[in-house]
Write a structure and sequence with these properties.
This protein is mainly α and 74 residues long. The chain contains two helices and no strands. It is found in: Cell membrane; Membrane.
Length: 74
């Protein structure tokens, strides 16, 4: 199988989204932890938003991987 240069470059650029997802997850959990330490009584109320943010951020990373695979294995 031969991959064109444009597809390889596009797949590499699409994979940058996975790095952004990792950074986003760190920000989400770090912010939750900082908020929970400041106000422990409100931490339970924010846990649902934490899980939603985790799911959306992780989905963006998986979508970028899917785009990279689609470009390479078309």
């Amino acid at each position: 199988m031969e991959v064109s240069a444009a597809a390889a470059i596009g797949a590499g650029i699409a994979c940058l989204g996975m790095g952004g997802a990792g950074i986003g997850l760190g920000n989400i959990f770090g912010s939750y932890l900082a908020g929970a330490l400041r106000n422990p009584s409100a931490a339970d109320g924010q846990f649902g938003r934490l899980i939603f943010g985790f799911a959306v951020t992780e989905a963006l990373g998986i979508f970028s991987l899917l785009i990279a695979f689609l470009l390479v294995f078309k």
